[in-house]
């Protein structure tokens, strides 16, 4: 697979990929190892939708991640693991060692009853066993469903039940910054409301003695001792599911986004190579958690498909101090560094001295992902981290897209602060007006959609294909609708503006407003609630909840603390509302619809232009909410 080295070359290749997508993708797919060649490159229609890539082909993705590299890169480092505490020793695995670890873990799964097609939930901290577990599932053809280890027992239980998982892989506890968290206890609580799980495999991380349920719970280290170091890779059809990953939508229930073996592999590998311009001896580091899609595609799958050395980091950017990222960059000589704007903004707030104490000479490409990067953060990243010599790739994509869709390609593309730029080869984005017509010219704004399939697009929502159709393919006929609004400048560069649906993006994490409202409403003192996002200096967006309570006599501060507690129990700490305003009523139209536009304006602190409030059932309520909001500031 050749790297694209200039903008002219990119333009030619993109043009070719649009004129003949099948030929384009077949050529890339043939650089991987398949057990059986495909019959058809692509069959598709976007109505139901039904998209199939490389039908008839069979493969195992782990042979492409590991086995394929053994001859030429067996002793090359595949994975470097950096612990939470810099005083603890790091772990390094060569391709040969990682291959052995994955095979052995795969045998542990088999010995515990796992079969091809089973769903296995992985609820683990960022330790090497997490990456190994993911690949072990893929080795035996089981479908992994990784749940970020910050989700609550309730959220975990919902996800286990939705996919009817039969095995959970977890750890005794986890370290995050100065904190220690009892992970296994969360699993135990979740399993009180799950009846499909018959085995829990527990990795040891913090050295606690969690409760082990006889017959159900086993220690990973005990199981590994009994497991063989060789495991044949299961032959999978290209369209067999590889994994499910839950994400939030505009309605309450999280969606299990399903990705398949063949297409996901082809795109994860290709996009990694092009965007980060990886060279054989480079060290690449993505700071995401494997609990999110960024970690799936750009810590595990994309880098290893390319035989790269990937760094996995257990900790947080500010522990033990705000120089942690830069210390790790220097420690390993990281060449490509990929993080989120929220982390950059948080570090900016700690001052530039933390950056200036490190050399950062090794850096070649900087990446950004998860939310729009504001110009101030972009400039800080460019000047202080990249020393104005590293291109910044602002990568726009989604859990649903599986891989990066719009982005610069290392230094081969022009860059412009706050602009993701141009689509990758093979990607055909469009801007639509509200009637679903394509806006052809440049210098415009519209709804961001995609008009042709790409290999790593979602195939369905687990167990609810109808919802997949409704959410992504029904708004605009014949297009995949992203849920984002975007601008295209005079030169055709895209700038993502943000969600146009009821999804909010807090520190690069997605939440549906309805999902948080449902959680708040579980508190028995709550009558109803409305959640909106508001601009937050570090998190991008913060969660602002307007809550109507039955118990108006109570102390407001206590009520608020109880509401927060309910959200933490229902979803997890990551979904804690930043601001809660107890209100006498919500502004509603005569037909009972909540006027979110007004609530959003008030949360933004912009009460001068609330627009027409005359259609409200009770216009007075707006005045009361405005007054209450001032007190919160
Ligand atoms: C939403 C997807 C896959 C990336 C991690 C988040 C927003 C993502 C950018 C970017 C502006 C971005 C969009 C998108 N987003 N990257 N570079 N610039 N916005 O994945 O949780 O599935 O969220 O994140 O709004 O729709 P996700």
From TrEMBL:
EC number(s) recorded for this UniProt protein: 6.2.1.1
List, for all copies, the residue spans of the domain called AMP-binding enzyme C-terminal: 515-593
Under the heading Pfam families, the entry gives:
ACAS_N, AMP-binding, AMP-binding_C
Q: Residue ranges of the AMP-dependent synthetase/ligase domain?
A: 67-454
Where do the Acetyl-coenzyme A synthetase N-terminal domain residues begin and end? Answer: 10-64
- Please give the family membership noted in the entry: Belongs to the ATP-dependent AMP-binding enzyme family.
Q: What is this protein called?
A: Acetate--CoA ligase
